[in-house]
Amino acid sequence: MPDKSSLENLWERVSKSDSKSLMKKHLTPSVYKRLKDKVTNYGGSLADCIRSGAVHLKSHCGIYASDPDAYDTFSDVFYPVIKDYHKVDKLEHPAPDFGDLDDLGFGDLDPKNQFINSTRIRVGRSHANYGFPPTTSKDDRIEMEKITVDALRSLRGELAGKYYSLQGMTPEVQKQMTEDHFLFRDDDPVLGDANGYDDWPTGRGIFFSNNKKFLVWVNEEDHLRIISMQQGGNLAEVWKRLVKGLTTLEKKLTFAHHPKFGYLTFCPTNLGTTLRASVHIRIPNLSQRKDFKEVCESLNLQPRGIHGEHSDSVGGVYDISNKRRMGLSEIEAVQEMRKGVEKIIQLESQLRNTKK
Ligand code: ADP
Ligand code: ARG
User: Which SS3 state, helix, strand or coil, does residue 196 take?
Assistant: First the structure.
């Protein structure tokens, strides 16, 4: 393992490897030379950005922004990575558009409950003028937690609930909440090596609405992850709740936004809408097909295991979500996921029928 604080060591490890990450692909020797001594206004370095990807050579993306300035300071590597990941030719992102909530044109994707266990949509948000994990101090984390908790108090009706700090939580409750898909993990080495667990658990926690369908994660990978989820396939209900919660919080908080990339997040894969709409879906037949990954890729979908990123599927149940988040609007990202999931359901049905 390289000395994780030394840029030279990290660079040596990744440049000599056969890593297929987007970071490795676009951080060519000449780009590296141009960027290696640059520092952002938050004190972020190239080492802070590539640390995780250089340690975890199997990373798909392999780079994080040390802070909101890193995307432009290290643009020679970030811009091509962003284009590559989000499949866009131009670095531009449309204004937010959540669609016509009274006339969405979709509802329950699985009214007979044959395929979908649960539906979840999340967006990430960063507080304006704060660094991301590698450049955040303990005091920053405490301050960000405080302003978030103050804003959460403005939620009313079905969104009203309570904030639970990670520090005040017993290990048993934490484990159960993580297994129930509500709480974030605390043991992902990929995030850990990106400085995501620095000062852990200071400033971290989770907000739940009383009905546990609206959640906010505080200071995990992003400053905020705003989440709406419920059992079954009613995408419209999940979406409307998310938009309601988000617009309420936006009245109290100022989020980091970039003219080219939309909402800013720690990881370039989340930029733009920052939106991941997913279903936990039972597809034991389709997932056995050799071309399952290609089918997902062709629909701009990303399959994950059911305990989150980097986990495995259990019993043919997959987490299927939109892959692209930048260069399209929020409602377009949700529609891309909806269309893809409808196609997945159609393919799984056909396979089920041929087995009969
Ligand atoms: P993120 O959504 O923040 O990118 P993960 O992929 O790690 O992060 O997922 C976080 C948690 O949310 C995990 O416990 C995962 O199983 C859960 N999750 C994701 N999608 C769904 C879903 N559709 N239904 C229930 N839980 C879900
Ligand atoms: N850095 C990891 C990779 O490149 C994760 C990327 C996306 N996931 C995330 N949680 N930001 O594979």
Answer: coil
Residue-wise pLDDT for 135-165, tens only, equals 999 999 999 999 999 999 999 999 999 999 9
Q: Which domain holds residue 35?
A: 7-86
Q: 159, 241 in Cβ contact below 8 A?
A: yes
| Domain contains 81 | yes
276-282: strand order across its sheet: 161-165, 205-209, 214-218, 224-231, 116-125, 276-282, 317-322, 301-304
Tokens 């290290």 belong to 74
Residue 76: give its domain's CATH number: 1.10.135.10
* 54-80 core/surface letters (b: 16 or more CB in 10 A; e: else): bbbeebebbbbbbbbbbbebbebbbbb
Our answer on whether the CB atom of 118 is closer than 6 Å to any ligand 1 atom is yes
Residue 319, ligand 1, Cβ within 6 A = yes
66 vs 205: CA distance, rounded Å: 22
Q: From the CA of 320, which ligand is nearest?
A: 1
> pTM (2 decimals)?
0.96
Whether 55 and 123 share a structural domain: no
- Atom of ligand 2 at shortest distance to CA of 22? 4
CB 209 within 8 A of CB 229: no
Question: Which atom of ligand 2 lies nearest, measured to the CA of 270?
Answer: 11
Distance CA 241, CA 249 (A): 12
Q: Is the CB of 61 under 6 A from ligand 2?
A: yes
- Which structure tokens are listed for 156? 């009313």
21-44: per-residue pLDDT in tens?
A: 999 999 999 999 999 999 999 999
> How much is the average pLDDT of 44-53?
98
Domain count, the chain: 2
Contact by Cβ (8 Å): 76, 202: no
Q: What is the pLDDT of residue 214?
A: 98
Give the Cα separation of 137 and 143 in Å (integer): 10
